[in-house]
Amino acid sequence: MLTQPDRPAGRGMRRSESAVKQLARARGLDVFQPQNLKDEGVLDRLIAARPDALIVAAYGLILPQGPLGIAPHGALNIHASLLPRWRGAAPIQRALLAGDRETGITIMKMDAGLDTGPMLSLNRLAIAEEDDAQSLHDRLSVLGAEAIVGALADIAAGRARASPQPAAGATYARKIGKEEAELDWTRSNAELERTVRALRPTPGARSQLRGEIVKIWRARCVARAGTPGAVLERGAEGILIGCGEGALLVTELQRAGGTRLAAADFLRGFPVSCGECFGAAR
Q1: Architecture of the domain made up of 178-269
Q2: Taking the domain 34-173, which CATH number applies?
Q3: pLDDT per residue as tens digits for the range 158-217
Q4: How is the chain split into domains, by residue range?
Q5: How many CB atoms lie within 10 A of CB 54?
Q6: How confident is the model over 97-120, as pLDDT tens digits?
Q7: Per residue, what are the HEC states of the chain?
Q8: β-bridge pairing 14-16 and 238-242
Q9: Given strand 54-56, what is the order of strands in its sheet?
Q10: What does DSSP say about strands 54-56 and 75-79: parallel, antiparallel, or unpaired?
């Protein structure tokens, strides 16, 4: 079992084992954690394992050419999109940000390009209106497990057929940048609501009020006109904030260093007045 090295994580930035490593250890499997796949001896160790196929799932590093050719059936990637749409590092978040109605799992044979290899299967999944990055990830992980088992069964039975990706419709799912977490209230409420869901649970959408960062965890669209960023109403149901089009009713928030709170609880500790404005520091 090969996974990335332990990384610092959490508020204390303590070194943390990946879920793959924890499962492998629980099952008594050997774990290999090279800093990168170009390290001396990595390829020799992979060859010595004599794999029939390499299975890659959210590894987070680009595989060099060497490992791609050591297994008779190649390196198979479980990619969380319907390729060629959303090649790259953040296909789940990009699908949510774009308002896609469906996504899925592509089982593909890896080549030297970035998610450009031929496809063994496309497995579709509808995106629900309430889906966020976590819930969509969890549903796709189940679908991905089923899809790779099916693909391996097809390979073993000699019925697997890889098809080139379509030339049209390719998009790139770049990593989510820190600047994208800052809500731009001049955008429509629909775009901002999708941003809140796409960035939940990490890194979390945010805005600023009185110079303080406030994370916005849950919100819904309201058909109400108002100045972008301005507080239009506040109460037990939430804080209604004007957008470039419509308004956003924010129902769960978090101050820097605080805990996530329902809007009513948030307002008891941090009163907000109508007319105040959320937005980047000016």
Answers
A1: Roll (3.10)
A2: 3.40.50.170
A3: 999 999 999 999 999 999 998 999 999 999 999 999 999 999 999 999 999 999 999 999
A4: 34-173, 178-269
A5: 20
A6: 999 999 999 999 999 899 999 999
A7: CECCCCEEECCCCEEECCHHHHHHHHCCCCCECCCCCCCCCHHHHHHHCCCCCEEECCCCCCCCHHHHCCCCCCEEEEECCCCCCCEECCHHHHHHHHCCCEEEEEEEECCCCCCCCCEEEEEEEECCCCCCHHHHHHHHHHHHHHHHHHHHHHHHHCCCCCECCCCCCCCEECCCCHHHHECCCCCEHHHHHHHHHHCCCCCCEEEEECCEEEEEEEEEEECCCCCCCEEEEEECCEEEEECCECEEEEEEEEECCCCCEEHHHHHHHCCCCCCCECCCCC
A8: unpaired
A9: 54-56, 75-79, 102-109, 119-126
A10: parallel
